[in-house]
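Local shape tokens:
==================
===
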Amino acid sequence: MLGICDRVVQTALMSKTKRVLLWVMAAFYCVGGFNHLYNPDFYVAIMPPGLPNPEWLNVLSGLAEIILGVFVLEPKVRVLAAWGIIALLIAVYPANLWVWVENVGAGGPGTGNEIGNLIRQPFQILFIVWAWWYTRPDGDTVAG
């Protein structure tokens, strides 16, 4: 019971905006992870060629998103989970670049939405910064 109380107190100390965005981020990764499992053909189709076992890589990345999305809600492992999200985003960034450069969509290279694939690039940076925010103690700013 004390663990639950500690979590409530720690979450209460977080600003309302940061707390709401934490839940949004957690939901974003959980839903995205489940989509990897529910709609694997899409994710396998946009993987760069030459990667070993793309079906398993899709499952692993989906499970990682779900686990990290859940764990980022737990104060005791939040910082570690946020760093895990950052590592995952960095790991998949080369694939996102490939999707943009080759205009990859569900039908493979040349079938994507060029504007959508371009817009996706800066969002990856935004998602990394968003996760990084949860590696910082509450009350800290970028300047320190």
